[in-house]
Structure formats: structure tokens, C-alpha cells
């Protein structure tokens, strides 16, 4: 009896948490459409004229989707050996917060419209669903490249901050308060906006020397933007290891190699 129950739970875990099987991919596709439908309903509900005309349809549809997400949330808890690992994980909290708003309307009357933004959190669930085996290796490679580059990027950002402080201080003394550069912090704000080539235009140099420095700052900005891209790209060109979407039924750890038989994190045998 226990063996049958265990096999049933393992099968449910494979369908819900993984995307390497036909059933798992089908579940993710259905969940993806449900998430997109719920987001569309949230957006339409915020349009007052549409909500007034189709309020009943939106309300019933939202309850149907909420019921579907509630069942899915319960199944995720049932199918894992350590439910707290999922419940208190990032996606577990997002799943709960995106499901409870409709239930809260029973206890807090008049809060339906104010909880619309909370229901929009369902959009974050798309990132978990989009883990098709074809892309999982690339996404993990990007994360590893960013992690390996964090020291270099940190030094680079520190260098950029120093440049912004120097340019801001120089522009404060050149332009002065009469041209909008009323303080060094405000001038540093201008240098950041200019260096990143955003250019809001709320502060602009008026003197010839100030305009010359602004031109140099913009050119430097274009060069600076390319540096982090080069740092991360160099890390991504290193040898890739293909990973699958298999999730540990015990600790929910992901990122296993195709030939992995046991979890890298807790040692539990994989399905």
C-alpha cells in the first residue's frame, strides 16, 4: 500500500515539478495559459468601463482560475516529501500570495479592487514554467556566468561611481546654481543620467565648456555600457554542461545533469 502511494506521489511530482516528460510539458503549457488568462483578466478588470459591462464574467472567471491554482498549490505540497521546502521557497510564497486575494475578499469586504496588484504576482510564475529542457542549460549557464563575473562587475561599478562623482563635482563648479547644478549631489545625478545615455533633459549645461564635458561623458557612457556585456560573454563562452529540469522529490533542488541518478544536494534517488 505504501509502495503504491509512494509511486503515485513520485509520478505526481514528476508531472508538476519537471518538464522533461510529455505529461510534465502538457501540465506546464496548461498552467502557462492559466497564468496568462489570469493576468489578462486582472488588466481588463482595471479598465472601469469594461469591468462595469462584464463584471460578472470577470468575477466568475477569476474564481475558476483561483480554484485551479488552489488545487495546483495543494498538489505541489502533497507531491514533495518536505512540504516546507516548497511552502517557504520564493516560488512557494509567490504561489500563495497570487492565490489568496480572492479568498481574502470574503473576510475583508471592499478590498477586491485593491488586491488586483497582488494577483498580478502570478506573472512571476512564468519564469518557473519556462524551463523546457532545450533552454534550461542556457539559463543556468547565464546564472553561472553572472555569478562568476560578480567580482569584476563590482569593481567596474565602483569605477563608474568614481567617474560620476568626479564629473558631477566638475560640472557643479563649471555650471553653478544659475544653470541648474545647485549642489554636488544634484550634479552627480546629472552625470549618472548622462553617462548611462538616458538624458532626461531636466538639467542641461549652458556653458561651452560644460557642453564639451557633457559630450565626452556621453561618449564614455557608450564605451562603459559594452564592458559588462564583454565580461559576462567571456564567462558564457566557457564549456557548457547540459542540465535537465529534473527536480528532487525530497528537497526540490534543480540543476541536475542528464545522467544524474541522485540529488546533488541531499543525495535522494531521482525519479
UniProtKB/TrEMBL annotation:
One of its GO terms (cellular component) is voltage-gated potassium channel complex. The keyword Transmembrane helix applies. It is found in: Membrane. SUPFAM superfamilies: Voltage-gated potassium channels. The keyword Ion transport applies. Keywords: Ion channel, Ion transport, Membrane, Potassium, Potassium channel, Potassium transport, Transmembrane, Transmembrane helix, Transport, Voltage-gated channel. The chain crosses the membrane at residues 26-44, 56-75, 87-109, 153-174, 212-232. Residues 25-239 form the Ion transport domain. GO terms for biological process: action potential. Pfam families: Ion_trans. It is a multi-pass membrane protein. One of its GO terms (molecular function) is voltage-gated potassium channel activity. InterPro entries: Ion_trans_dom, VG_K_chnl, Volt_channel_dom_sf. PANTHER family: POTASSIUM VOLTAGE-GATED CHANNEL PROTEIN SHAB, VOLTAGE-GATED POTASSIUM CHANNEL. This is Ion transporter.
Amino acid at each position: 500500500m505504501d509502495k503504491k502511494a509512494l509511486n503515485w506521489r513520485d509520478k505526481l511530482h514528476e508531472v508538476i515539478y519537471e518538464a522533461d516528460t510529455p505529461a510534465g510539458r502538457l501540465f506546464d503549457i496548461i498552467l502557462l495559459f492559466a497564468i496568462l488568462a489570469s493576468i489578462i483578466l486582472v488588466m481588463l478588470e482595471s479598465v472601469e468601463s469594461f469591468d462595469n459591462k462584464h463584471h460578472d464574467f470577470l468575477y466568475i472567471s477569476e474564481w475558476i482560475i483561483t480554484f485551479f491554482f488552489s488545487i495546483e498549490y495543494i498538489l505541489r505540497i502533497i507531491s514533495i516529501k518536505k512540504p516546507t521546502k516548497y511552502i517557504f521557497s520564493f516560488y512557494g510564497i509567490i504561489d500563495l500570495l497570487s492565490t489568496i486575494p480572492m479568498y481574502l475578499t470574503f473576510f475583508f469586504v471592499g478590498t477586491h479592487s485593491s488586491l488586483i496588484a497582488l494577483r498580478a504576482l502570478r506573472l512571476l510564475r512564468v519564469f518557473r514554467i519556462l524551463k523546457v529542457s532545450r533552454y534550461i542549460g542556457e539559463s543556468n549557464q547565464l546564472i553561472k556566468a553572472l555569478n562568476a563575473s560578480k567580482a569584476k562587475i563590482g569593481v567596474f561599478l565602483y569605477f563608474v561611481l568614481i567617474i560620476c562623482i568626479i564629473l558631477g563635482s566638475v560640472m557643479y563648479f563649471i555650471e553653478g546654481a544659475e544653470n541648474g547644478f545647485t549642489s554636488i549631489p544634484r550634479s552627480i545625478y546629472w552625470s549618472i543620467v548622462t553617462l548611462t545615455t538616458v538624458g532626461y533633459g531636466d538639467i542641461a549645461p549652458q556653458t561651452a565648456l560644460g557642453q564639451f564635458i557633457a559630450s565626452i561623458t556621453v561618449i564614455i557612457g557608450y564605451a562603459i555600457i559594452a564592458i559588462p556585456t564583454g565580461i559576462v560573454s567571456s564567462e558564457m563562452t566557457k564549456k557548457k554542461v547540459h542540465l535537465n529540469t529534473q527536480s528532487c522529490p525530497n528537497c526540490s533542488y534543480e540543476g541536475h545533469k542528464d545522467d544524474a541518478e541522485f540529488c546533488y544536494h541531499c543525495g535522494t534517488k531521482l525519479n
